[in-house]
Write a structure and sequence with these properties.
Elements lengths: L6 E9 L12 H14 L3 E10 L9 H11 L5 E4 L2 H4 L3 H14 L3 E4 L4 E2 L9 H28 L12 E3 L7 E3 L1 H15 L5 H10 L5 H4 L3 H5 L12 H9 L7 E3 L2 E5 L2 E6 L6 E3 L9 H13 L4 E4 L8 E3 L6 E9 L5 E9 L14 E2 H18 L4 H48 L5 H34 L2 H17 L5 H7 E6 L5 E5 L9 E4 L2
Parallel strand pairs: 1-2, 1-3, 3-4, 13-17
Antiparallel strand pairs: 4-5, 6-7, 8-11, 9-10, 12-14, 14-15, 15-16, 17-18, 18-19
Helix pairs in contact: 4-5, 6-11, 7-10, 12-15, 13-14, 15-16
């Protein structure tokens, strides 16, 4: 094809163990050789950049190399992508189809998949694309099912499938997927069970005791890679934690059992996993040497069942979106903590806590605040606010006049902007006419005309969309009625005071921001008020 400028080519290479790739035939080096040879044979292709995702599955597009390539497309650095075959680009039918049939054509990007004879610049470039993508998707699912089947067979045979051995054990250097006792760490495990069962210490006190003695936390002792690479969010570094102790006390690995299928991948296309129910576990007994005997284990489980470990769960709340810490301006998190008491009753605590608390080296020290305090003070602030809104006819008239002036100013700005865009639209249409004449007079080729015309058409559509947005905004300004807006807000405020559980929508009409501090002061900022400035109510307990 004749072209004034060469295509700026991006070589994209991907390789993954998870989707069943043949490491030799599909190696990055092999892919690079094939792409380089193809580029040398086609003089219109200019090798600009290469993007590599080694170790990333093709079932989704959450890959660093691919994301960088998309950014370079947006920046205009490349206008052609080459892969060894379609499966290197992606295996997911829907997402791959979106990129090849919509995203790349919209951005005028040529795509070549050498092995599948795909070249989007040709009229039949995407022929049989749907069939090929469906096959790649099926292949990825089939491989995923086979891998899952192999793992399940190993789990059922009692082979340990974790990447790292549990604290107290090591991986057997002689027998694959078998655990052997770690002499040092196993003594710490025995001590933990002894402190919990025989000495009556809680998980929190056990963690404190181990930290006082400067015993290395499991992640440091076992040199877990992720811990070695990044600093702990805890200001004290990696230490023993009570939740970690609680998990160890419940882990059957310490009595010689291998427990599999605790977690399950949602889909071969999704990286997330879900926790399975206990009845779905596969438990194979007596697979390695136990550290804890059955009697101690049973006593620990009985104690755990009688006095449940505190559980902190995350729930939604209609006020959550508006709550911030007054001391560091961090977003608040809503927490519900539950614990089973000795008498069988459930203790519950609902609080808002700064999200920056205990999460970084100089974490926020703001204390949590009870949900009931927040709700009570927000309602009180709303009540005080609506009691202040007593408008006379003159005051309402002033509000209308101010609103009219504001609308008029906004409208004038929008009209000026629309006029400017209309002028650009005229210039665009004129340029389109000129390039069309160049084509008729054969000053440019049909292919070059097509590329230039598509670019101009895209610019034109963008300008038309901007005009549509401005016209819509001006219509909204015409409909705006400040008086009605205040009346509506007063009604909503009164309805909130009468309801036990107001909705998110109701709060969104009234509240802009809520702040709290360690002294339980609550500051409410409203979206409305009698004066132009925000009204603030500070209530201390």
């Amino acid at each position: 094809m004749l072209r004034i400028n060469n295509y700026k080519v991006a070589k994209y290479m991907r390789l993954s163990r998870d989707d069943g790739d043949d490491r030799e035939s599909e190696s990055i080096e092999n892919q690079r050789d094939i792409l380089d040879s193809y580029i040398k044979e086609h003089k219109e292709l200019e090798d600009i950049e290469e993007y590599v995702d080694d170790g990333y599955t093709g079932t989704n597009f959450n890959r660093p190399g691919f994301k960088k390539m998309l950014k370079d497309i947006e920046d205009g650095k490349i206008d052609c992508i080459i892969t060894k075959d379609l499966s290197r680009f992606g295996r997911d039918h829907i997402d791959t189809g979106y990129y090849l049939e919509r995203y790349l054509p919209t951005n005028n990007i040529r795509y070549i998949a050498i092995g599948d004879n795909v070249d989007t610049i040709k009229s039949d470039g995407l022929q049989f694309l749907t069939f090929k993508l469906s096959f790649n998707d099926y292949y990825a699912q089939d491989i995923s099912n086979k891998i899952k089947s192999v793992k399940n067979r190993k789990i059922e045979k009692g082979e340990f499938q974790g990447g790292i051995a549990p604290y107290g054990y090591k991986k057997d250097p002689e027998i694959k997927n078998h655990l052997v006792v770690d002499e040092y760490a196993s003594e710490i495990v025995k001590e933990i069970f002894d402190m919990y069962v025989n000495k009556g210490m809680s998980a929190i006190k056990i963690a404190d005791k181990l930290n006082e003695r400067n015993i290395e936390a499991p992640c440091l002792y076992m040199k877990i890679p992720v811990c070695m690479k990044r600093e702990s969010r805890n200001p004290k570094g990696y230490i023993w934690r009570s939740d970690q102790i609680a998990m160890m006390l419940k882990n059957e690995v310490y009595i010689g059992n291998v427990v599999g299928r605790k977690f399950q991948k949602i889909s071969h296309k999704v990286e997330k996993v879900r926790s399975t129910k206990r009845e779905e576990y596969v438990i194979v007994k007596n697979m390695h040497e136990p550290i804890i005997d059955e009697l101690i284990w049973k006593k620990a489980q009985d104690k755990l069942n009688k006095r449940g470990i505190t559980k902190t769960m995350h729930y939604t709340h209609p006020l959550k979106e508006y709550l911030y810490c007054a001391e560091c301006d961090g977003k608040a998190t809503y927490r519900v903590r539950k614990r089973k008491r000795k008498n069988g009753n459930i203790w519950e605590q609902r609080t808002f806590i700064c999200s920056n608390k205990n999460t970084r080296k100089n974490g926020c020290t703001c204390k949590p605040i009870e949900e009931t305090i927040i709700i009570e003070k927000v309602k009180k602030a709303i009540k005080e606010e609506i009691e202040q809104i007593r408008y006379t006819e003159d005051e309402i008239m002033k509000i209308y006049k101010r609103a009219e002036e504001k609308v008029k100013t906004k409208t004038n700005i929008l009209k000026a902007k629309e006029s400017e865009i209309q002028q650009k639209l005229k210039e665009n249409e004129q340029a389109m006419q000129e390039v069309y004449q160049d084509k008729i007079q054969k000053l440019i080729t049909a292919d070059d005309f097509s590329i230039i015309y598509q670019k101009m058409q895209k610019d034109k559509n963008n300008l038309l969309f901007q005009i549509h947005q401005i016209e819509t905004e001006m219509l909204e300004l015409e409909k705006e009625d400040i008086g009605k807006k205040y009346i509506e807000m007063i009604k909503i405020a009164k309805s909130i005071l009468n309801l036990e559980k107001p909705s998110i929508e109701q709060y969104s009409k009234l509240i802009k921001k809520i702040k709290f501090d360690s002294d339980k002061n609550v500051i409410v900022e409203f979206t409305f008020g009698k004066t132009n400035k925000q009204e603030e109510y500070k209530v201390a307990i």
